[in-house]
Structure formats: structure tokens, C-alpha cells
Amino acid sequence: MKQTPFDRILLKLSGEILAGQKGFGINPEIADKLALQIKTIADTGVQIGIVIGGGNIFRGMAVAEQGMDRVTGDYIGMTATIMNSVAIQSALDKIGCDTRVMSALSITQLAEPYIRRRAVRHLEKNRIVIFAGGTGNPYFTTDTAAVLRAIEINADIVLKGTKVDGIYSSDPVKNPDALKYDKLTYKQVIEQELRVMDMTAITMCKENNLPVVVFNIKDDKNLFRLISGHKIGTVVS
To answer: Which residues constitute the domain of residue 116?
Structure first.
């Protein structure tokens, strides 16, 4: 029996999480740990969609600032998200999870093409669906891709796993006096320009009344606590 307030979630992970201490590339041990966390909540009966960033491999905006064409950089970044998605799929496969990678970019040797109805059918069959390739368009972040997919699959909530334990008034690493928020409205995030997600993603959440929780996924228990109804991190609603 499912004992959680959520039927279907969208888990957003930053690519940097997969890099670990090195800050670059994919650390298989971290992928395995993430897979175990995901399996724990899948075993409760919650349907899971996942979007993973590609910042551990490539950042389109960063290289655009150094002179590369922005569109080219963004497409390379999308391929980085496919690499990360396949890595997580491999880790989930090893522990017996039925998983599908669906990509907005055509790469049939590694992933199915993203088709909304097919994605929903996979979720209804309790398969974990990893959405790769961003939105398939340049100039959109993986935060926006995560919110878009969450809306399309009718997810109850977006859970954004990060390296910090919530949203702060400023960078808590640089400012020890930064204030942590337990709850925020979309309007507060937009007006205060808080670095939760990009403004496109937050605006889409606001327009579709989609709540977001920002939490520290490096604590192995936090994801399970969240889907069990505990107050973890910062809620934006």
C-alpha cells in the first residue's frame, strides 16, 4: 500500500551531484547511491519522473560567454544530460528497477523519443522515466525542462535535489548570516530574484499551481522523508 501524499513526482537533480568531489564527470558510486534512494521511494508505489542536468559535463551558457555560439553550446549541453540519464538508468537497472530514458533529442540507440502519452503509460506501469535532452530547444534550462515535463505528466510536485538544505536569502557559503526560508510563494521568489530555478521555470510553476520543494539530496534519508510527508527543505507554492 502507498503511504505517501504523492501519487506522481518529478525529481530534478543537478548534474553536479553526480560529479562528487571531483566536480567533473560521473562518479559511479554516487550514481549507485542516488539509485538506491530512488528505488526506496519507487517501492512505496509513487510514480517517478526524473530530469538530470548536465553541468558536470558541459555548460552551454558558460562556453557561450567564452565565444562559442550559444545554440551550439546548448545542444552540446543537452547531449550531456543524455549521458547522465543513461548513467542513472544503468545504476537503477543494477538494483532491479524498471526504467526508461526518453529523450527530446533523437538518439534511438540510447533512449526512446519523448512522447507524452507513452511516458504516462510507462509511469502507470510503475516504470521510472528519466527525461533527457532538456526541452529539445536551446535557451531553456533543465529546470524549465523539469517543470515542463512535470506539468505534462500531471506530477503532484517537483522535488529539486541540491547540495544545500533549502532556499536562502543569499549564498550561505559566502554569507553565514543568510536566512533560510521554510516556505515561500512564487511571487516572493520572483520579486526577490531568489536563485531557486530560472524565472521561466518559476513562472510556469506559478501559472500551473505546481509546488516545488528544494532540499539537500546528499542526505540519503531526505528523499524518503519528503515523500512520506515530512517537512524538509524549502517549499515554494
So the answer is: 8-166
Query: Domain with 59 in it: what CATH number?
Result: 3.40.1160.10
Residue 73 counted as domain residue: yes
| Contact predicate 81/91, CB 8 Å | no
Residues 6+ apart with CB under 8 A from 179: 168, 169
94, three cell numbers: 543494477
Number of domains in the chain: 1
Residue 15 identity: G
pLDDT in tens, 53-107: 988 887 766 777 788 888 988 899 999 999 999 999 999 999 999 999 999 999 9
Q: Specify if 221 maps to a domain.
A: no
- Alpha carbon 21 to chain centroid distance? 20
Beta-carbon contacts of residue 103 (< 8 Å; ≥ 6 apart)? 82, 85, 110, 111, 112, 113, 114, 131, 132, 133
Q: Is residue 54 part of a domain?
A: yes
The residues near 94 (Cβ < 8 Å, ≥ 6 apart) are 32, 35
Dihedral angle computed from the Cα positions of residues 70, 143, 25 and 57, in that order, rounded to the nearest 10 degrees: -10
Q: Model-level pTM?
A: 0.93
The answer to whether the beta carbons of residues 29 and 175 sit under 8 Å apart is: no
228 in a structural domain: no
- For the chain, state the CA radius of gyration: 17
Query: Are 48 and 193 in contact, with CB atoms under 8 Å apart?
Result: no
For residues 180 and 160, give the distance between their C-alpha atoms in angstroms, rounded to a whole number. Answer: 16
